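User: What would this chain look like folded?
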Amino acid sequence: MNEDYTDLSKMIYLDNNATTREDKSVIESMINHLKCTNLFGNPSSSHLIGIETKYLINEAREQVRSSINASNSNEIIFTSGGTESNNFAIQGILKLNLNTVQHIITSPFEHPSVANLLKYFQNSYENIQISFAKVNSNGIIDLEHFRQLIKPQTKLVTIMHSNNEIGSIQPIEEIVQLCRQYGSSDLRIHTDASQSLGKVPIDVKRLDVDLLTICSHKFHGPKGIGALYIREGIQLEPILYGAQHEQGLRPGTENVLAIIGLGRACQLISNKSSLNKRIEQMKRTRDRLYQGLIKQFKDENQDFIVRNSDEFYSLPNTLSLSFRGINAKQLVNQLGDRLAFSTGSACHEDTKYQTMSTTLQAIGLSWELARGTVRLSTCYMTTDDEIDQAILLLTNAIKEQLYNSTNGHDQNH
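Assistant: Here's the prediction, encoded as structure tokens.
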């Protein structure tokens, strides 16, 4: 092993919006399944070994249903993750009527699996029209502007439930109400709840959406598995072709092991009391981090640290901060073996140009602030001690940059 190898167990992990550590009971559920030597069957087989395996899938499907308060477990279709679920929802609607004019309303900062897919459809089909709803400086959809965008040809609205970068939570209920009031009867509404499930309560009956994306690894489940909620009665065109798995909507032998893990992860958040405890822990550590950093830099200019979301209308675990005059990419490199977190400017150091993320562009951030933006995301496993260590690490690294800048040292501009 390399002598410079870093003990990863000693790193502080504040990048939970990128992915999360699997919950111990999720791991145990998957290991226990692997140890069951007679539960290896193909769920489509009609013999007892296949039937028993199919039962495990249906049990997990019910656990997913319960976590979002869907009416029926048949409304849950398993996929390979958030990207496939988003593709299935959007393509599944648009492919039903490719020869007619279809207007789509979306936000300016969707996940690439939504944004790039819509770009493809717009470039490939003249009858596909896309409108982008405006957002305010906190990254919240402007409802009046959204209402003005709705027209008779609007067939799909796809807006993320919460933003992965700054944590802003969208008013999905109000958006749906406007769609029902001003839109046509065949207007379908999809929300990508990948970042929200496990961090805030998700109730599809209350949201009243037609389609909702679930991504396991964002809330302590395994990677490579997700689900799409499809409200009963909503028709989708399959995007993959094969056998009749998942009610004929998603072919391919089911990933039983990962499905079991997703089911267990959903079971852990279905209890309101348990979920609320997680939320309180995430919020407490996030706020401790924010207040600690504010205290460390109280002698700097008042606008040295800018918070990029509304404290009350954002995910309880997400903290997007811009440090004026600081290079966030360099900050990540300085702390890369001690603290795991992300930049907010999506700077591509290996290219000739640097670009600002669509989220930071949408909320009107200046280039100086975007360049100094970091995303710090906690989870219910994050401890006070880890937060205190993170505050010191970030403080020292930022002060090092400020010192070098004051004394004319190169900051890798």
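The chain has a mean pLDDT of 93. If you want, I can go into more detail on any region.
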